[in-house]
Amino acid sequence: MPEITVLVVDDEPNICAVLSSTLADEGYQVVTASDGEQALRTLHRQPVDLMFTDVLMPNIGGLDLLRRVREIQPRLPVVVMTGYGSVPSAVEAMKGGALDYLTKPFDLEQVKVAVRRALENGNGEVAAPSGPAPAVEGVIGSGERMRQVYETIRRVANSRANVLVRGESGTGKELAARAIHRHSPRCHRPFVAVACAALSSDLLESELFGHEKGAFTGAIAQHSGRFELANGSTLFLDEIGDISPNLQLKLLRVLQERSFERVGGTKTLKVDVRLIAATNRDLEQAVAGGYFREDLYFRLKVVQITLPPLRERQEDVPELAGHFVRKYARENGRKAAELSQEALARLTAYRWPGNIRELENAVEHAVVMTDPSCALIGAEALPELGGAPSEAVSPQEQDPEGAGQELGPVAPELARALDACAWNMGRAAQQLGETFRCLRWWVDQCETNRPHR
After folding, report:
1. Domains held by the chain: number
2. 41 and 167 belong to one structural domain
3. pTM for this prediction
4. How confident is the model at residue 406 (pLDDT cuts 50, 70, 90)?
């Protein structure tokens, strides 16, 4: 029989001692924790095959702990114990995924039976330690490219290292960041996210670092920034390549010294924040062009995770599509349905320039357009895929030489607008009357076609 590790979580030392002795006599290895926070740290530090947890504990109670364990280790058997047994709490525990429910004071024979029942599979044999799932909670795909991503997420999750997540728009960069947080010792604190491209430079500075009362017009009260809110947790900065040079310098200081001042303030605040940044830009080009600080780039890129576009992981399309079918059937009150073979063939053959986000939208459309009484979603319910605007190739791909000629007169106008907006692409796009994505594409092309010196 493989060695089985049981985690006992209870704020009463006597309970931990009695259970440890009883389970050790049965041949199990036992580790203990005095509350939910300590239990989560233990789960991230070592493999555990079964958990006993009390309900009423300081910091994180047993039912909250059960919910969080279900997020990070969905297959871990959990037995809930309480001295205040009641039908409602028993029902809540079982709904949360508990396999058994014991009321204190319990007979030690009940404990032994509960352990055997939790560890036995359908054949009555003791299950081997489950180990990590091949995938990572919240991220879908079982192809080789994604398995490499999962392995990196698991390795980096328990560290404090900054992570740079790269990939095209719609590939799931924020999902990967959330997975790192969920599998880290910081998972019991809120995940804090900021969309850098959605805010002007001044607003983004205030959002990140906070401001003091009277720091600027409209600052009628002190405001805590996202770095303060993420103290002890994870801060995710999406589209990090869009921040202004001034903010790049401030961000570098926070990463180096773990301290900052609010806008308009003089008090230095110390923080413990794990930073995950994401971008779909070529940061190496931005560094070479002088638009992004090289020292900040290396600070962000301690560990790099590159998410493949969906066209390079077509084998994951059926799994992703099935997930979205179930999601939107549930959200729209529809019966469980499946995609027809023809529908799956169309989805798998398409190149998905909009990546997972485009696939999700297509599947939602198909679910909504299918008769609620149908158990099969046909290809006719899918939106038009071929020749859609999102699939159109860029002018440079259509005519590289022509695109290069067009860039000449456009580049100076772009540069003037970007300089005037402190390189905030959102504001520059508004000034030029263009969409953000269009402006981003032109900037990337200007960098690509700029003469080398």
Report:
1. 4
2. no
3. 0.58
4. very low
402 pLDDT band, cuts 50/70/90, is very low
Q: Which of 405, 327, 412 is nearest to 363 (CA)?
A: 327
Nearest in space to 194 (alpha carbons), one of 138, 238, 129: 238
Residue-wise pLDDT tens digits, 12-28: 898 899 999 989 888 89
Q: Measure the CA–CA gap between 307 and 312, rounded to whole angstroms.
A: 10
Selection from 377, 368, 392 nearest residue 347 by Cα: 377
- Residue 410: how many CB atoms within 10 A of its CB? 13
Residue 170: give its domain's CATH number: 3.40.50.300
The answer for residues whose C-beta is within 8 angstroms of residue 90's C-beta and 6 or more apart is 101
Calculate Rg over the CA atoms of the chain. 26
Tokens of 210: 């906070």
Same domain membership, residue 371 and residue 278: no
Residue 287: which domain range? Answer: 144-306
Contacts for 320 with CB less than 8 Å, ≥ 6 apart: 140, 141, 310, 356, 359, 360
In a domain, 132, yes or no: no
